[in-house]
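Appendix B.2, paired examples.
Example (i):
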Amino acid sequence: MNKKVYTLCLLSNDTHVLLGLKKRGFGEGYWNGFGGKVEEGESIETATRRELLEEAGIHAARLEKQGVNSFEFVGDPVILEVHIFSVPEFSGKPKESDEMRPQWFKKNDIPYHAMWADDKFWLPHFLAGQRFAGVFTFKDKKLLKHTLNIFDA
């Protein structure tokens, strides 16, 4: 199996989380965090900062890694390894890009019905400040199986 490394980051405070509506490409029409592919020669943290700036106009002053999820798609030999970060310190106001439309959501009003099926399993742990690692297997956009391990901080 081949592996591609990706990043994902989310901004949150005590009551809200910032998500982006994907406007094109992989995951179009779904609410998600901000991130993308790690380019050759780029660190995971540098890619996270670049993607957040490109997609939402926000500068990440500090990142905290909270998890790694692996995604397998039936029939595709490539595993997506996604490193997930919180952004406790940032500057700038979220602004729409050609790829994402950012919007703040109350934590008790997250649109899980319009997100990837795996998000409802790991995102509550992310928002609780927990560390985690998961493996999610999809066929098309349907989640077939998953494992999720939660770690003490």
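Example (ii):
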Amino acid sequence: EEAVRQFDEVIAQDHGRNLDFTALAHGGMAQLALQRADATAALRASTEALRVMGTAGGSHNPSNERYLWRIHAQALARTGDLAAARDYAQRALDAYRHHDDPASAEIAESAAVLEGIDRLAKK
């Protein structure tokens, strides 16, 4: 509940500026929804996170976008849209591989998400 309150506060303080922090707050809400097994809420929050990131004002950290792609992939997979989920997961993995150290935890996490989506698709 405290995390939700803090994410809501970040979102409320954005005032239409569409800052990276706001996109990350929506991403955090998506992760919480995934933990609660609420696929609809996760997809709604991750979609909003990507919308905000796409129109972000001020400074923009490209690694945040990769992170949000991975969350969106997980939300899409939970709603059954495996083709779109795989696309976002692959996009995140490719970007991390391009920008991060090969031993990066982000690469390992993104590869695990992609593998999970591929296992779901084979069922």
